[in-house]
Amino acid sequence: MKKKLFGLIAFLSILILAACGGSSEKSDSSNAGSENDGNDIQELTIKFSHVVAENTPKHQGALAMKEYIEKESDGKIKVEIYPNSSLFGDQDEYQNLVANNVQFIAPDLSKFVGQNPQFNVTSLPFAFPSDDEAIAFWDGEKGQEILRSLTDDGVLGLYMWPNGGKHMTNAKKPIEKPEDLKGMKFRTQGGQVQEAIYSALGAGSESIPFGELYTALDQGVVDGQDNTLSNIESKKFDEVQKYMTIMNHNRVDYAVFTNTKFWDSLNEPTKEIIEAGVEKGTEKARSEAKALNDAALETIKERGNVKITELTPEQIEVFKEALQPIYDQFEDEIGADVYEAIRAVSE
Ligand code: LMR
Question: What is the pTM of this model?
Fold first, then answer.
């Protein structure tokens, strides 16, 4: 009798819930992607995965984004950030974004040259003197076109977040001139331009995921690598390298990518908050990048593990000349119009 009564109550409860249209719009990353035309902020859990440490512009940008979105949505939207390749690494974060297993990633632009060779822009030698010119390029018409070129994969590029200029570290000898690289092997983030740079300087190269780089340097799989100061410092690459040359020969900059199906599933009030959150993150990453790199240089100096070479303008000129032919080599793939847009912001 009791059992029957419980059964009846349960059955009636289901009927009532169904008649009310369900109890909430709650969804998480696994079911985000269904249409929602309501006027209430959707309850969501958004995942943001990245490969770098916490003391970096990318993580600081992601934190600012999280803080804004969670506050403005009264906690209805949760943002989970996974740094240090703890959820996905370079090898699998893009596929998982495409599969909507993660809703935001912010990978180094140079890791997408397979999808569109124009992402090589960020690796072009000495193209952007500082963050400002790089930001101006990616906010401009050509930059936006490239950022938004992955829609066939279901991926939308929203903004460029800068990290900064790259500098070379290695375990063999100080680098002051192109010949110093001869015979060494360097790790690249990826991409044909980075390979061409090392080959023009007489060195070999191999693309290695960021999460495996410390071990690869430690075990001598490669002799050196190039990166921003905040990445070198926060990942302690100076522990397993002996020399560092301040070069600023190309850059690490990020594309904030989201999944279009997820994006299109957001109703207006929800999208407004997330969009504004991404803007807050963009402001934070852009305003912190240089300061974090400057502070990282001081820390690396204090640790004293690497001998630091600061090239003179004349020494930089020699590298520029050696690498100039790369522009001709990649003009067809990257585009004369893109080169023109770089010149317009950098000269
Ligand atoms: C690297 O792979 O060296 C960097 O692109 C990592 C990052 O995301 O800054």
Answer: 0.89
